[in-house]
Specification:
The complex is a heterodimer of chains A (622) and B (180). With 622 residues, chain A is mostly helical. Chain A has helices at 3-25, 30-41, 52-73, 76-81, 83-107, 112-122, 127-136, 143-165, 185-219, 222-242, 247-259, 264-289, 292-297, 299-323, 328-337, 343-354, 360-392, 417-428, 440-447, 461-466, 482-495, 508-517, 527-540, 545-565, 573-596, and strands at residues 410-413, 433-437, 454-455, 474-477, 500-505, 521-524. Chain A has a six-stranded parallel β-sheet with strand order 3-2-1-4-5-6, sandwiched between helices. Chain B is an alpha/beta fold and 180 residues long. Chain B is 36% helix and 16% strand. The chains are: A mainly alpha (622), B alpha/beta (180). Chains A and B meet through helix 24 of A and helix 3 and helix 4 of B.
């Protein structure tokens, strides 16, 4: 095996181990640690990895994997729900920033074609930095988080038309000063190809990939699924390279086409372990790609462009956030979150260079500028936390209780007979739920009724992570088997201590196990139906329905008490049996008490105008 | 110190009631007052009469806090009275267990005081419609206290609300202190 590759891998991992915990220790973002690691081992640091090919491969694979996961997040339904923010905030951010940056670039003496490419490219922000920061600070529900997401969504989508437009802006031959005739059919061919491939991928995703995913999922071989997930990423990349496009774009489109499928969470879960590290690799490659030679050669120009870029983007964001009436802290945070150049810049700039739209020197200059702006962002966030946030109060403390439209997520594991009933009740109240089941046949069945259930094993931590369990309000465990329910309950409690957990219990002792595991709600699956049947049995035997219902209430209340009181006794068999025996006597007492403790019956006896009806029984035939 | 006042709060949805929510918070802040949020205690409207009787036996004063629905308290309060103040406990043979305790009724109404004038839509002062509660107290041998009435509870100014709550608080504190 190639020892230099192994050595490179070792160096990268060692640098991560050394620098990432260190940056955490100093209260800085881990992104900064990765970037520092990249600079350290790169061609301008210790030169441990100076082979540009290795750098490029590392960086490319990191970007590929990240864009696949970004694409996976891009659900059409999610976009639709946020359409106001997406159209208003996202679109205006993109267009406005692109216009201003392009105009400034043109002012600096760049041709309008290149200025347009620069404007479009630099108006995009770093999804990796912003999403990671949003997730780490759990601010997805705040204005800054939602607004940021809407803007990123627009940028993600904009990549496709931008890439399609670049060939039209390119220069013919090797003379960068002569603009191409944009009516040249050869230029249109590339644009048409890009759009065509995109349409084709969507069709393939719907009619080819999903059946394969289902087939592999049904076999239940986990490695098979992992291999398939990776094969999809790589396959989509290869396809794009075949038509001369960036592999990262292919991965992104591969993600988009699977975003709507029921296997999204499972795919996310499968790729999650790779994601963190590969994202790290991506940031490392950013660190390595900061060509300090360019910085030495044109220090003032670079610094001016970086600061100018961040200022323009930040001001546009701040102005728009003001327009959308965000809280001051949210406005500032969102402006900082998205003021840098993004990973799409690497992709688009590279593509523009390869298409001849951009000269090599301009390419290098812009790459360094973008990388530096990414390096500065975590520092700005750090400064925001230390200097700005304490003064203005990060969240509007006086805000009224949230309105109903910001419902937190509910995750339901198991969509069988039990889960379906729970789900119907919550859905009727307008709750949006993530439903997860591991039976492909069941998923297919309910799909016909318009219910979207994700395929996956609810007992897998990575899957729950991918489904957003950490930010969920409630997790309902409605799967079937006793041991599995207990195991999931214990796992959820351990990893997501803040989330409320409601679990299906098989019987009383299982309910005890679940209470020990710390669930908030444990309900025995047959208890209430049996009580209900018992109540109706009493009515059939001649009891007044209201009386039978009261007896049922008394019984349920008594039984919950027994459930709680016997919990501590259950490991002592003698005590437990003794308690259960006495509980029968207690029950008889409770049922009698509803009537006779003091001769009670609702207002019974009152001035003798309410005739006792013999323990509630009445002869209906009379 | 065990509670000496039972504050019975009968409002089916406190999230929409500014006045009752504020009053309940006030009562909760006074030592010696046991606040019983009826709709919270009995979400299924199933009142445990035995438990409620034991609760009442422990205190010397009872307060009803409620919005005025159809010239009366919310239905669960009536159910609570029916299930709790039963024969041979509250009245009848051997039934004098509530005797000597005091009863204060405190209501909030949606209409302004003009509506409760003889020419208004309600035709009589709200106090008149409290007669059944007054007679209930008399029948059980409880001391009747002048009721507290807050009109226009949704639109009343913050100052008037605070003033009303201040008066009620004084009364509650006096009840809690007297019992010691």
């Amino acid at each position: 095996m190639d020892t230099s590759l192994l050595f490179a891998i070792f160096v990268l991992l060692a640098a991560i181990v050394a620098l990432v915990p260190l940056s955490r220790f100093f209260g800085l973002s881990t992104i900064l640690g990765y970037l520092a690691a990249g600079i350290l081992v790169g061609p301008y640091g210790l030169r441990l990895i100076s082979d540009t090919d290795t750098i490029r491969h590392v960086s490319e694979f990191g970007v590929v994997m990240m864009l696949f996961l970004v694409g996976l997040e891009l659900q059409p339904a999610e976009i639709w729900r946020m359409r106001n923010k997406v159209m208003g905030l996202g679109l205006s951010q993109f267009v406005l920033t692109a216009l201003i940056v392009a105009a400034l670039a043109h002012q600096l003496g760049v041709s309008w074609q290149v200025a347009t490419i620069v404007g479009l490219t630099l108006s995009m922000s770093s999804t990796a930095i912003a999403l990671q920061t949003i997730a780490q600070r759990s601010i997805m529900q705040t204005d800054a988080g939602r607004g940021g997401l809407a803007i990123l969504l627009v940028q993600d989508i904009a990549v496709i038309p931008v890439l399609a437009a670049i060939p039209l802006l390119s220069f013919s031959g090797g003379t960068p000063e002569v603009p191409t005739n944009i009516w040249d059919p050869a230029q249109w061919r590339v644009a048409a190809e890009i759009v065509g491939v995109f349409v084709l991928t969507i069709l393939a995703g719907r009619y080819l990939v999903r059946p394969v995913l289902r087939f592999v999922a049904e076999t239940g071989v986990r490695e098979g699924f992992t291999a398939l997930a990776l094969a999809l990423v790589v396959g989509a990349s290869v396809l794009m390279m075949q038509i001369g496009l960036s592999p990262a774009l292919g991965a992104f489109m591969g993600g988009v086409l699977l975003a709507d499928s029921e296997y999204r969470h499972e795919l996310e879960g499968t790729l999650e372990p790779f994601k963190g590290l590969l994202l790290g690799l991506f940031f490392i490659s950013v660190g390595m790609s900061i060509a300090f030679s360019v910085l030495y050669a044109q220090p003032l120009e670079i610094i001016g462009v970086v600061l100018g870029l961040m200022a323009v983007k930040g001001l546009v964001l701040f102005a728009l956030a003001t327009l959308f009436r965000m809280h001051l802290a949210d406005r500032i945070l969102m402006a900082i979150l998205l003021c840098q150049g993004g990973e799409f810049a690497f992709l688009v700039l590279q593509f523009a260079r390869d298409q001849g739209s951009l000269a090599q020197s301009g390419y290098e200059f812009l790459i360094v500028a973008v990388a530096l702006s990414m390096l500065l962002t975590p520092l700005l966030i750090f400064a925001f936390d230390k200097l700005v946030a304490p003064r203005i109060g990060t969240r509007s403390a006086t805000r009224a209780p949230d309105t109903i439209d910001t419902r937190q997520k509910v995750i339901v594991l198991g969509y069988g007979r039990f889960g379906q009933i729970v789900t119907r009740m919550l859905r009727a109240q307008g709750y949006e739920m993530t439903l997860i089941d591991d039976d492909p046949a069941q998923i297919e069945l309910v799909k016909r009724f318009g219910v979207k259930v994700f395929y996956g094993d609810g007992g897998r931590l990575d899957l729950l992570d991918a489904a957003g369990a950490a930010d969920a309000q409630l997790i309902v465990i409605a799967v079937g088997e006793r041991e599995r329910i207990t195991a999931i309950a214990q796992m959820v409690r351990r990893h997501f201590p803040k989330v409320k957990v409601a679990a299906r219990a098989v019987d009383r002792s299982h309910a005890h196990d679940l209470m020990d595991a710390g669930v908030d709600i444990a309900e025995r699956e047959t208890f209430h139906s049996a009580v209900s049947l018992g109540t109706r049995a009493l009515v059939a035997l001649g009891y007044l329905p209201h009386k039978a219902n009261r007896l049922a209430h008394a019984f349920v209340r008594h039984d919950y008490r027994i459930l709680n009181e016997s919990r501590d006794l259950r490991h002592d068999e003698t005590a437990y049996v003794g308690y259960m025996r006495s509980s029968i006597e207690m029950l008889n007492e409770v049922m009698r008490a509803d009537r006779s403790e003091h001769g009670e019956n609702a207002a019974g006896d009152w001035m003798d105008d309410f005739t006792d009806i013999d323990n509630g029984r009445q002869d209906r035939t009379e | 110190m065990p509670a000496s006042v039972l504050f019975v709060l009968a409002h089916p949805d406190l999230t929409i009631s500014r006045a009752n929510r504020a009053i309940a918070a006030t009562a909760r802040g006074i030592e010696g007052i046991d606040v019983l949020d009826l709709y919270d205690e009995y979400p299924d409207l199933f009142v445990d009469g035995g438990a409620e009787r034991r609760r009442i036996e422990a205190v010397s004063a009872i307060v009803f806090q409620m919005p005025f629905f159809w010239y009366s308290g919310p239905s669960l309060l009536k159910e609570w009275m029916d299930r709790t103040f039963t024969s041979r406990w509250a009245y009848g043979q051997g039934g004098h267990r509530a005797q000597g305790k005091s009863l204060t009724v405190s209501i909030t109404t949606g209409s302004d005081s003009g509506a409760w004038a003889p020419t208004g839509i309600h035709g009589a002062p709200a106090e008149d419609y409290l007669k059944p509660y007054h007679q209930f107290a008399r029948f059980c041998g409880m001391h009747w206290h002048d009721p507290f009435v807050l009109h226009a509870s949704r639109t009343v100014s913050d100052e008037s609300l605070a003033h009303h709550i201040g008066r009620l608080r004084e009364h509650l504190e006096a009840l809690a202190a007297k019992a010691e």
